[in-house]
Write a structure and sequence with these properties.
Number of helices: 3
Number of strands: 6
Order of helices and strands: EEEEHEEHH
Structural class: alpha+beta
Shape: globular
């Protein structure tokens, strides 16, 4: 990881929060693999392959790290799907048995979290959900999974 910061839509992501990067995508501690493209259909073939290969690598390691038994990969593509940041990104969510009473409730939880996040975000200020120290610590733990 050579960059000191990464772009995520209109936001700047501090490199301390990034735990894995390729030439075409990167993984960060809050919204995982991302590419600077607004819609999934706008990705090139190489970007699509790289994004999914990266999501797979991240998923395998996070599933082991969190002692989960499954993974949910989600993409919200466009505003009506719930996409709040105008860039392609995949949510990689480690899953455990009975983490939701009804398995599909995870999509309601993701939608609710995205709406809360959209309400909190202001393009002129940084997110205040977590400190860089907290995110850097988590990313450092995940970064070790790739070394």
């Amino acid at each position: 990881m050579e960059a000191s910061a990464y772009k995520f839509g209109p936001y700047t992501i501090d490199a301390r929060g990034v735990f894995h990067a390729t030439a075409l995508s990167y993984a960060m501690v809050n919204l995982r693999p991302v590419l600077p493209v607004k819609r999934f259909a706008d990705l090139s073939t190489d970007e699509t392959i790289d994004l999914w290969v990266t999501a797979k690598k991240v998923g395998v390691r996070l599933e082991q790290y969190h002692q989960a038994s499954s993974l949910t990969f989600t993409i919200q593509d466009g505003p009506q799907s719930g996409q709040t940041v105008p860039h392609v990104h995949i949510h990689v969510i480690p899953r455990k048995k009975r983490d939701f009473e009804n398995n599909d409730e995870i999509y309601d939880a993701i939608d609710m979290r995205e709406k809360e996040l959209k309400e909190k975000l202001d393009l002129d200020i940084e997110r205040k959900d977590r400190t860089m120290e907290e995110m850097g610590h988590e990313a450092s733990e995940y970064r070790a999974l790739f070394s």
